């Protein structure tokens, strides 16, 4: 059986600000309480939740001390995070999300995870052509 998926958007990979490797990085606007901050997000099918550096809490007006301590685990072990409800806007699509803020993630880009980003978009990867394929879900 053949399945055809028609993606609304094909985005070229971007060079990672850390090492220059081409990766599925897309522009993301983080929003909270009428404030916003722009960054990049790595489309990461291995991430359960989206994660951003704790420094982004400052321009968003978020006092991380008001949120309980939590942790995030991955191949590198466990790192401390705070779970914070915010809004992310990606290619005009608004996504209500509970994201992890922590110091272990670089400031140059965050991770876009399955619980929120992948719930808002059908996602595909065309590695040969260095493209991330996106289709907004209703």
Keywords:
138 residues; mainly beta; Cathepsin D, subunit A, domain 1; 7-stranded mixed sheet; 3-stranded antiparallel sheet; 1 helix; globular
Describe this structure in words.
The protein has one domain (about 20-135): Beta Barrel (Cathepsin D, subunit A, domain 1), CATH 2.40.70.10. The chain contains 1 helix and 12 strands; from the N terminus they run ββββββββββαββ. Strands 4, 5, 6, 7, 8, 9 and 10 form a 7-stranded mixed beta sheet that branches. The protein has a 3-stranded antiparallel beta sheet with strand order 1-12-11. Strands 2-3 form a two-stranded antiparallel ribbon. It has about 140 residues and is mostly beta strands. It is about 5% helix and about 55% strand.
Strand-helix topology:
Layout: E1 9-12, E2 14-15, E3 22-23, E4 25-32, E5 35-43, E6 51-53, E7 69-74, E8 77-90, E9 93-102, E10 110-112, H1 117-120, E11 121-126, E12 131-136
Parallel strand pairs: 5-10, 6-9
Antiparallel strand pairs: 1-12, 2-3, 4-5, 4-8, 7-8, 8-9, 11-12
């Amino acid at each position: 059986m053949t399945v055809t998926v028609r993606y609304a958007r094909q985005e070229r990979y971007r060079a990672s600000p850390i090492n220059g490797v081409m990766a599925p990085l897309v522009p993301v606007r983080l929003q909270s309480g009428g404030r916003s901050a722009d960054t990049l997000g790595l489309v990461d099918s291995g991430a359960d939740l989206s994660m951003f550096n704790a420094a982004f809490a400052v321009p968003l007006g978020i006092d991380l001390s008001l949120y309980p301590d939590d942790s995030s685990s991955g191949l590198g072990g466990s790192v401390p995070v705070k779970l914070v409800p915010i809004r992310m806007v990606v290619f005009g699509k608004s996504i209500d999300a509970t994201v992890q803020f922590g110091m272990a993630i670089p400031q140059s880009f965050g991770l876009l995870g399955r619980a929120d980003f992948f719930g808002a978009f059908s996602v595909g990867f065309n590695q040969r052509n260095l493209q991330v394929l996106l289709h907004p879900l209703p």
